[in-house]
């Protein structure tokens, strides 16, 4: 990567299996924004996101980051909000203010209370602190279950075909990656019938299929 | 707490020292919204947020939650976005779309990448998993430093008197509680001159003073 950043194109810095990149890929598909895919391998070379060159793109040394409109934006939820404001067609937030609040409440449950607690670098730190590799799965499982318990209750009140009623929203964009990780860590999904039902439905939608890890140029195996 | 929830008033469920309640208190002060303060003690009675009664307010069994406009909303960042949309006077987001994205990027660094990793229940779990109480501070310190490293770089590009230019924003609302915790866990703040400078300025502003833990009805000691 050169230190000269070309801001004339739309570029997504992504890793095929990253939950946060996955959300943004779905948003870009809904907004029909074509982009160049720039793979950042989170494990190769000790983590390509940790280079000084990449830190110019995202000082958090994390993915995703999006170059768009001559700007660079980091943090998946901030990118999603930008895309919604920048291109309101195919809305991913309802119009009603209270409905928007509930969608954001669901999105933040996954985005603040689940995903950050079980991402790669946190699990590596759990292993380091405990000296036990097998503690990683126990840790991840606990926080996913904790968040899904709350989310399922909100879905009982508000869901339809999608997390909020019958319109796709930011909340849905966060779901597939989190369910994927829940299965990976053997969370008992029978406690979450609505999460399962909605996620099954999402898996049939073209924009969600396009954004799947296995459909990315840097995919290593089918998942 | 009765199971009948009175939705006719504005009520904030809060704990004086909670970082996420603190952010929302500042937002309410800026929006000049008067509210009833309902204290939820995170430690007393094994944690008052864990009761079945409170789970009707917030199924995540976490604070803050806000009753407003006949609705209940949880997750601090979702509440803040609602308040901004519901009452646009005294704006806490800039008008320019890219500026809004950077404010949200900064807000999410604290709200997703720092605070959730060092809150009470996560630190309790670190002690449980390691069997060592003293690991809590080491864990918290690492994640605060990791997030502040990225945030300080963004501030170098975008800050003025406040995190983004010379207008107070969501990013500033998240800062005081995080700096308070950084000091509590002995993070070396000399690496973060801009965070320190902005936080000092924020400490002089009436809305920020009003929201301080020590100024809440459930405050136990001065902090």
Automatic annotation (TrEMBL), chains A, B:
Residues 8-91 form the GST N-terminal domain. Pathway: Amino-acid degradation; L-phenylalanine degradation; acetoacetate and fumarate from L-phenylalanine: step 5/6. Its cofactor is glutathione. GO terms for biological process: glutathione metabolic process; L-phenylalanine catabolic process; L-tyrosine catabolic process. InterPro entries: Glutathione-S-Trfase_C-like, Glutathione-S-Trfase_C_sf, Glutathione_S-Trfase, Glutathione_S-Trfase_N, GST_C, GST_Zeta, GST_Zeta_C, GST_Zeta_N. Gene3D superfamilies: 1.20.1050.10, Glutaredoxin. One of its GO terms (molecular function) is glutathione transferase activity. It catalyses: 4-maleylacetoacetate = 4-fumarylacetoacetate. Transmembrane segments: none annotated. CDD domains: GST_C_Zeta, GST_N_Zeta. One of its GO terms (cellular component) is mitochondrion. Keywords: Isomerase, Phenylalanine catabolism, Transferase, Tyrosine catabolism. Belongs to the GST superfamily. Zeta family. This is maleylacetoacetate isomerase.
